[in-house]
Amino acid sequence: MKYKIAVASSDGKNVDSHFGHVDSFWIFEVNEETGSFEDIEERSITPACSGGACSGTQNSKDSGCGGRNGEGEHASPMDDIAAALSDVDYVLVARIGPHAIRALAKYKITAYDIVLPIDEAIGKINDFRKKISERKSKK
User: Fold this and answer.
1) How far apart (Å, rounded) are the C-alpha atoms in residues 37 and 123?
2) Strand 49-50 and strand 53-54: pairing?
3) What is the pLDDT of residues 4-51, one digit of tens each?
4) Nearest CA-CA partner of 38 in 52, 27, 22
5) In this structure, what are the phi and psi dihedrals at residue 119, rounded to the nearest 5 degrees?
6) How far is the C-alpha of 35 from the C-alpha of 25, rounded, in Å?
7) Which residues, including other chains, have CB under 8 Å from residue 23's CB and lie 6 or more apart?
8) Dist. CA 104–CA 23, nearest whole Å
9) 135: number of Cβ within 10 Å
10) Is 49 left (phi over 0), alpha (psi -120 to 50) or beta?
11) HEC letters along 10-54
12) Rounded to 10 degrees, what is the CA torsion of 89, 91, 97, 100?
C-alpha cells in the first residue's frame, strides 16, 4: 500500500520548517511494505503566517482569506493549506499550532512536529504504521 507525506522543509533534506511559515511542502509517496519513498512534487502554498505572526487562524467573516469552508463560512489560511494537502495522510513539520492541527484533522491528516532528516522521519512514520497494522491483525 502506498501513502503520501507532506514535509515542511527549507532544503528538501530536513524537516525544519514551521507549518504556517512555509511557502511549499515536499510531497513524498511511501511504499508501506518496503519503506521506500520518492519525492513526487514540491507543492506551493500561500503561507498562513507572515512577519512572525499568524492572522486569520480562526474562521471569521473578516479573516481576509478568500474562499469558504463547506458550511458557508470564510476559510482561514490554515484551512486553505489543509485543503491544498487534502490528498496526503501525514504532515511533518518542525512546529505546528492547534489551529493548523484542527484544520488538517478535518481532512483526516495527522500532523507530527519532528526535527530530523526527511529519510529518518519518514522511516519513523512507516515503522509506526507497520506496528499499528500488526496490532490490528493480531486482534
Assistant:
1) 9
2) antiparallel
3) 999 999 999 999 999 999 999 999 999 999 999 999 999 999 999 875
4) 27
5) -65, -40
6) 20
7) 44, 45, 46, 47
8) 17
9) 9
10) beta
11) CCCCECCCEHHHCCEEEEEEEECCCCCEEEEEEEECCCCEECCEE
12) -50
Residue 14 cell numbers, joined: 530536513
**What would the grid cell of residue 117 be?**
532528516
How many other C-beta atoms can be found within 10 angstroms of the C-beta atom of residue 134?
9
Q: Which amino acid is at 12?
A: G
Q: 139: buried, middle or exposed (CB in 10 Å: 19+, 13-18, 0-12)?
A: exposed
Question: C-alpha cell of 77?
Answer: 489560511
- 119 half-sphere exposure, CB direction, 13 A CA radius: 3
* CA–CA distance, 87 with 133 (Å, rounded to integer): 21
Q: What is the pLDDT of residues 62-121, one digit of tens each?
A: 333 333 344 445 578 999 999 999 999 999 999 999 999 999 999 999 999 999 999 999
pTM reported for the whole predicted model = 0.82
How far apart, in whole angstroms, are the C-alpha atoms of residue 117 and residue 62? 39
Q: Do 48 and 66 form a contact (C-beta atoms < 8 A)?
A: no
